[in-house]
Amino acid sequence: MNDERYPGAFTYAAAGVNIDAAxxxxxxxxxxxxxxFPGTGAARPIGHFGGFYRLNDDDDRLLVASADGxxxxxxxxxxxxxxxxxxVGADLVNHCTNDLLAVGARPLFFLDYVAMGELDPDIxxxxxxxxxxxxxxNGIAMIGGESAEMPGLYAPGDYxxxxxxxxxxxxxxxxxxxxxxxxxxxxxxxxxxxxxxxxSFARAVLGLTGDAAHDRELLAEPVAGGNxxxxxxxLMAPHRSFLREVLPxxxxxxxxxxxxITGGGLIDNVPRMLPDxxxxxxxxxxxxxPPIFWxxxxxxxxxxxxxxxxxNMGIGFVLSVRPADTDRVLNEVPGARVIGxxxxxxxxxMRVLGLD
Amino acid sequence: MNDERYPGAFTYAAAGVNIDAAxxxxxxxxxxxxxxFPGTGAARPIGHFGGFYRLNDDDDRLLVASADGxxxxxxxxxxxxxxxxxxVGADLVNHCTNDLLAVGARPLFFLDYVAMGELDPDIxxxxxxxxxxxxxxNGIAMIGGESAEMPGLYAPGDYxxxxxxxxxxxxxxxxxxxxxxxxxxxxxxxxxxxxxxxxSFARAVLGLTGDAAHDRELLAEPVAGGNxxxxxxxLMAPHRSFLREVLPxxxxxxxxxxxxITGGGLIDNVPRMLPDxxxxxxxxxxxxxPPIFWxxxxxxxxxxxxxxxxxNMGIGFVLSVRPADTDRVLNEVPGARVIGxxxxxxxxxMRVLGLD
Lengths: 356, 356
Prior knowledge:
The structure is a homodimer.
Chain A: H1 19-34, E1 51-54, E2 61-69, H2 73-80, H3 83-101, E3 106-116, H4 121-138, E4 141-149, E5 159-170, E6 185-190, H5 199-206, H6 212-219, H7 231-235, H8 243-251, E7 257-260, H9 265-269, E8 279-282, H10 291-300, H11 304-310, E9 315-321, H12 326-332, E10 337-343, E11 350-352
Parallel strand pairs in A: 3-4, 8-11
Antiparallel strand pairs in A: 1-2, 2-5, 3-5, 6-9, 6-10, 7-9, 8-10
């Protein structure tokens, strides 16, 4: 699908991913899902970064759970092989960890699902080993999982993996944006790369064909404007965990809202951390966008409104912080920058300066 | 791979599924996985039907979690379409539920992972709707999930799905086989069909090619020895949940061990419910094997030792019960039958009469 204003521009839908369709499909089953809640400990409607469950009526402790996948970064790992399988295993754990973190929860345990056409013990050991190492780094117990051989569903060498995480918090520790006010500043934490989002787009705009020799050659090329690092190694940069830096700040009451910048980018994820009636104003001049993002955007001739939804553009996590606490938070999180502010626009959502 | 004793006989490995390879692959990462345990609440080594996590040192309550897939029953659902998508959604929930039940846990909440090449809202709504309906029937809250579009990984119309479940129990409610003794009887509960295991085998021995018209025609044929029901509808019979019948018996202390008969059949799953030094002696004359199983076994010319590992052969769940409690348990579970006994062989494992 070409953009009307910029002929030839590349959009996410053209790469085969339709965020709006996913949202519409979920709307069709939302009432059935919520019909499972009565008589259980389900504590909040679906749609947060994690789902909430109250163990006891007389206890203010809640469990929070989240499920995630790796997306088509997997295809790159499959193509590049070796240590890339461990990278996406760790990516999955860190993605799950950050989702729980975004509501203020401390992760407790993790389980995985791995499906292959035919089980490859080397790939499996690297992939699950990468998950286990990342779990240990985050203080999370990996207490189980499922591996499935599904001949006929996955092409030889292909696989998929999903992660499932459970954490906990006290009622008063929930960060759901209700504490955000219109004077707050937005602090961005560097992502260190695409994390696990935008890979269908990246593969499309770079012209990866699925032919291994062709694709490997293409991925060996340097990132435009970079320091000689290859496209492949840059795209495979790990999905960071923000747990160690951010959870202590949240538990100390220094953040009023949080967003993990995953599928949907800043555009879709920042509004999830704001209460009704408040908007975000983000200034892209507030941080340095790593060269890989400009490389992809220029290859795709992609509009700003689109690329801020497809890619995180260098911001992996966003905190909303009261002005008085800003210096302290900036000092405690390496690389953190003020990227915008919360404004009383009277409508939900966010605006990126210079986007309209 | 042909069996050496019965030339032409069909084995599971020939259908592309290698249970031993999966086990060996897991062995390679077991130490890395267990290295995530220190300092967390992880309460037992991996390998049970569910993973255990202790929330507090001063509380005897444990969480139990399990991850599962649907296996290649999915391919049949994709081929048959319509309500079959809801069936496999419910299968996934019931599979997860039974896994928790097998250790004595009451399920609390469920999350799903659904991956498609391109999101099909109709399939998604049926599949996730089937999950939600099954959650409600089991009293489980569906508190979240993840849907992924992965163009290039899944063929058009294909998808995969995984389920994650968390339950709870008190320390004293754990059923891990430590209470099993050599006088106990084994009670089998009917499965109502293949549940979600043996489908790669079934597809191979029936000669499904992946050509939709050919496969649909073949699946419209009647089950040999049946009452006219088609192969397709019989294979798509739902995976039963045993929660409502069995959990009250377990909580009343009437069962000493439990096994959910999934991948690996009676041969691999019954030993998981027994302590060291005890074996199971199962007599296949003890229950009526539904015609679909004989149909598949005869098509594959498959050895008994093999088919009791590939298929559940009509038994979905096994209870170990003290002789004095047997009548009461048989009266409370419709269709339950004594299928064998626990014997002091001095070695782990099980034996099916007439198998050697």
